[in-house]
Design goal:
With 110 residues, this protein is mainly β. The chain is built from no helices and six strands. It starts with 9 loop residues before the first strand and ends with a strand.
C-alpha cells in the first residue's frame, strides 16, 4: 500500500518504552506525492500492549489527502500460545475465512 513502506524512515526519538520514526519530503517530487508532509510512527510499550500512533503533519499550503494502510506483523513463534483481544464499544462481527473465500460462519460479540 503506497510509497511509505518502501522509504527509509529516520529514527527521531527513542526511550526505554517507545520509539519514533519520521518520514518527510522536502519537495513534492521526493515521493511522487503531490503534497508536502511529515509522517511519524510511534511504537509504545505499556504493560502487555503495543500502541502504534500514526501522526501526519501537513507541511503544504493546501489540504492534504492521505490514508494509512498499516498492516503490522509480529514474530511471536507458536501462535497457539497467543490470542487477540479486541476492545470496542460496539458490536464486533467475526467472519470465518477459508481461503480464498469467506464462509457463512459469522459470529457476533459485544
Amino acid at each position: 500500500h503506497g510509497f511509505a513502506r518502501k522509504k527509509n524512515f529516520k529514527l527521531t526519538n527513542q526511550s526505554e518504552k517507545s520509539i519514533e520514526f519520521t518520514l518527510s519530503n522536502s519537495t513534492k517530487d521526493d515521493f511522487n506525492f503531490p503534497f508536502l508532509f511529515e509522517l511519524k510512527i510511534i511504537y509504545t510499550l505499556t504493560n502487555n500492549e503495543i500502541k502504534v500512533n500514526y501522526i501526519v503533519n501537513n507541511l503544504d499550503t493546501q489540504d492534504i489527502y492521505f490514508s494509512i494502510g498499516g498492516h503490522p506483523a509480529f514474530n511471536i513463534g507458536d501462535i497457539s500460545d497467543w490470542g487477540i483481544l479486541l476492545l470496542s464499544n460496539s458490536e464486533i462481527k467475526t467472519i470465518e475465512l477459508k481461503a480464498p473465500y469467506i464462509t457463512d460462519n459469522i459470529q457476533t460479540t459485544g
